[in-house]
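Cross-check.
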Amino acid sequence: MLVLTRRIGEELVIDNEIRIVVLGTEGRRVRFGVIAPTSIRVDRAEVFERNRLAGKCVETASAEPVLVSSR
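Predicted model, tokenized:
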């Protein structure tokens, strides 16, 4: 596992396509945004596991890239 330290407003870039932006912190929580092509599915780990265990394979919608934040 790669462990990095970032400040609010700083980003990580994965494979020249995916950007993860630190939006803010509140106590022990970190808010971040994910900017990725619509062909790449982005889920929280618990949602991914729940869908995997249920055997669900959700189709990726074709739309413009959006900013997704986790609270």
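The mean pLDDT is 85. The beta strands are 11-14, 18-26, 29-35, 67-70. Passed to J.P. for a second look.
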